[in-house]
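Collaborator request, handled under Task 6.
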Amino acid sequence: VLTLTGLNFNLTRYMPRQFGGVFARPPYVMREVRYPASLASDSISRGVAALDAALRATPGPVIVLAHSQGAQVASHWMRRRQSRSERERWCPGCGRRWPERGLGRGVPDS
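Structure tokens returned to the collaborator:
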């Protein structure tokens, strides 16, 4: 389980407690993906690079557990790093419903 925290400047490690701590116990192995998690203009892009490296270095099935800015990192990774066929491999069924542009109603990619 790869985790991406929200914008908290890496001051707290709260992800192991999410979902009642289920993903922090066997059979899962939790690993934090470190990125700035800050107001820096490159925080999300640096997070995308860190997530990409972590995914490539992790064999087998992967769960990405992300919150707030971390969820933005995961979303940007899916949109920018992968083709529709790759998104389908990482997230079965997502390829048919994942919007090609915009993070939501009226919100453009940035």
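The cover message to the collaborator said: "The helical segments are 43-57, 69-81, 84-90, 94-97. The beta strands are 2-4, 31-32, 64-66. Please let us know whether this matches your experimental observations."
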